[in-house]
Amino acid sequence: MTIDNSYKLKIGITCYPTYGGSGVLATELGKKLAEQGHEIHFVSYALPYRLKGFYHNVYFHEVRVSSYPLFEYQPYTLSLAVKMYDVIQEFNLDLLHVHYAIPHATSAWIAKEMLGDDHPVKVITTLHGTDITLVGQEESFKSISRFSIEHSDGVTAVSRFLHDQTVQALQVTKPIEIIPNFVDTELFKRNSKCDCSREMLSPDGSKVIIHISNMRPVKRLQDVIKVFASVSRQLKARLVMVGDGPERAGAHRLAEELGVCDRVTFLGAQESIASLLNCADLALQPSASESFGLSILEALSTGVPVISTRCGGPEEVVLDGQSGYLSEVGDVEQMSADAVRLLRDESLYKSFSAVARQRALENFTIQKVTAKYLNYYRSILGR
Ligand code: GMT
């Protein structure tokens, strides 16, 4: 079958619109495809937070969930399915690309069933992480996760680790294409235009360690604070905590207990991640599980080496001993020692920083990975 690369596609994208790697990835992918002339329709309950501003070829369709006294829980999955069904028909979409299996892949399947043969739309599901490693394995979601994945026309996973987890945990038999996450290497680079400065984050010239996450238990914030406390006993350092979530208060308490509170700044959720990384020396991401680790990639692209764990995705993103260091989950001592070694040795640091940037440029640019998605779309569509 010959594939016509000039044919512009009409693509629906569904993702979580809130802070989080899967939403970022889906939105940036949609924006890049729109730049290339494809027509992109985002379908979600709110405007994705990276979609502020006007983008040519990009449309947004809000899913409204009406309340009814009988419903204790509003059936968002159904409202989403109906909105997908409407948008597919009205704009004659070629495909629907859903990010995060639950409930998006299920809604897409319902919409497709409703359309029947009238509109042969294809559904592609991208698995991001906790949709498989946590949510997908809960008893109440396991069978529907498996069903929705098996019934997608195409399935991608953001890492080999996630691919294997999906096969093992859900016994999925459908081929899963591995397409890694990407980063905008022009935005995430040293000395890019910045709206903050090192002096603001570290007025006394201390090394700046940064942690960025949605501060859920899986991110192991207690380890972040413990590692930092150990590092700051050995050299002058400050810790910048970016993001918000249920573990934030506990991390703050631990910083107080360990006597480092005056050297830790909790910034809360921030939009200028690229600027903040630009002011950092080291990123600390000691997660218990990470299917990929988009914030790790953003740090590497900025030339910021990363201290992380052998918890799945980071092994595919960080070159252990070259662009960062990986330890066993919870090995605070090792992570502290690695951080201190890197921050003390200028020539080692420079080499790590250069390798980090190089690796992002070689494997994870937005241009390269968008081309992979487009090829995959065309192979599923046969056009
Ligand atoms: O951690 C989550 O549940 C959020 C999820 C998301 O929607 O951002 O993160 C996952 O997807 C990201 C984008 O592909 C990955 O970079 C994260 O590693 C992954 N999180 C986990 O696996 C814990």
Describe this structure in words.
The protein is α/β, with parallel strands linked by helices. It folds into 2 domains: 10-182 and 365-381, Glycogen Phosphorylase B (Rossmann fold, 3-Layer(aba) Sandwich), CATH 3.40.50; 198-363, Glycogen Phosphorylase B (Rossmann fold, 3-Layer(aba) Sandwich). Helix content is 43%, strand content 16%. The chain has 15 helices and 13 strands. The chain has helices spanning 21-35, 76-91, 104-115, 130-133, 139-150, 160-170, 198-201, 221-234, 248-257, 273-278, 294-301, 314-317, 332-344, 346-363, 366-381; strands spanning 10-14, 39-44, 58-62, 95-99, 122-127, 154-157, 177-178, 207-212, 237-242, 264-268, 282-285, 306-309, 324-327. A 7-stranded parallel β-sheet has the order 3-2-1-4-5-6-7, with helices on both faces. It has a 6-stranded parallel β-sheet with strand order 10-9-8-11-12-13, with helices on both faces. Helix 9 (248-257) links the parallel strand 9 (237-242) and strand 10 (264-268). The longest helix is centred in the C-terminal third of the chain and has 18 residues, at 346-363. The protein is globular, with a radius of gyration of 21 Å. It starts with 9 loop residues before the first strand and ends with a helix. Bound molecules: ligand GMT. Residues 16, 20-22, 25, 100, 128-130, 133, 158, 181, 218, 289-294, 313 line the site of ligand GMT.
